[in-house]
Design a protein that fits this description.
The chain is an alpha+beta fold. The chain contains 3 helices and 7 strands. The protein has a single domain, classed as Peptide Deformylase, CATH 3.90.45.10.
C-alpha cells in the first residue's frame, strides 16, 4: 500500500541510530501517543523509522528501538518478492500507533526470530498464529487488520518492544548471560579499535 499518507522526498529522510542491548531504554514500557501528537510531525517521525528499518535491513521497528518511548511502530508485512527474491519495499507498510491485539488464536506458530536491537542472535519462539490488531495511524485514524503467520509474528515482536521486552527476555538466563558476555567483548574490541584510530 506504499507509504501511509503523504510521502517525503529522500532529502527529508533521516536514518536514525538503532539502540541495542543492554541500552536501558529498551527495558522501559512505552507510553501511549497523546491526541495532540498525531499529525504531520508524527508521520514524518514514522517515515524516518520506516527508512531506518529498510536500511538496517529489517521488517519492523518500534519507537523504543530509536529512543522514542511512545507506543509507535512501523512494519512491512508483505510476503511478496521481486524478480531477485527481495521483499517489495513499501508494498504493505504500516504505521501503527497505540496498537492493541484484540483477538488471538489458540493455534500457535513457530518461527525463528531475530532483532535489530539484539544483533547476531536468533531463537525459535511460538506465538499465536492469527491475531487481530487495532491501532491508529499517524494521523489518529482508527484501523483494524487481521494477520497470520509471519506477518503476525512481526507485529507481535514489535509490540513486545513497546512493553520493554526484547528477545533476551524470552530465553533462559543462561542464554541471555552468554549473549551479554559476547556484547561486552564486542564493545571492548570496538573501544580498542577506536583508541587505535585516534592514536593515528
Amino acid at each position: 500500500m506504499g507509504y501511509p499518507g503523504r510521502p517525503f522526498s529522500q532529502v527529508d529522510i533521516v536514518i536514525l541510530p538503532i539502540l541495542t542491548v543492554p541500552n536501558p531504554l529498551l527495558t522501559q514500557r512505552a507510553r501511549p501517543v497523546r491526541p495532540d501528537e498525531f499529525g504531520e510531525a508524527l508521520h514524518k517521525r514514522m517515515t524516518d523509522m520506516a527508512e531506518t528499518m529498510y536500511a538496517a535491513p529489517g521488517v519492523g521497528l518500534a519507537g523504543p528501538q530509536v529512543g522514542d518511548l511512545r507506543r509507535i511502530l512501523t512494519c512491512d508485512l508483505t510476503e511478496d518478492r521481486d524478480e531477485d527474491g527481495r521483499r517489495e519495499k513499501g508494498k504493505a507498510l504500516f504505521f501503527m500507533c497505540n496498537p492493541q491485539i484484540v483477538a488471538a488464536s489458540k493455534e500457535q506458530f513457530r518461527w525463528e526470530e531475530g532483532c535489530l536491537s539484539v544483533p547476531e542472535f536468533w531463537e525459535y519462539f511460538e506465538r499465536p498464529r492469527h491475531v487481530t490488531v487495532r491501532f491508529q495511524d499517524a494521523h489518529g485514524e482508527l484501523q483494524e487488520i487481521e494477520i497470520s503467520d509471519y506477518p503476525s509474528i512481526i507485529v507481535q515482536h514489535e509490540m513486545d518492544h513497546l512493553e520493554g521486552i526484547t528477545l533476551l527476555d524470552r530465553v533462559s538466563r543462561l542464554k541471555k548471560g552468554r549473549y551479554l558476555k559476547k556484547v561486552k567483548k564486542w564493545q571492548r574490541e570496538q573501544e580498542r579499535v577506536e583508541a587505535e584510530e585516534q592514536a593515528w
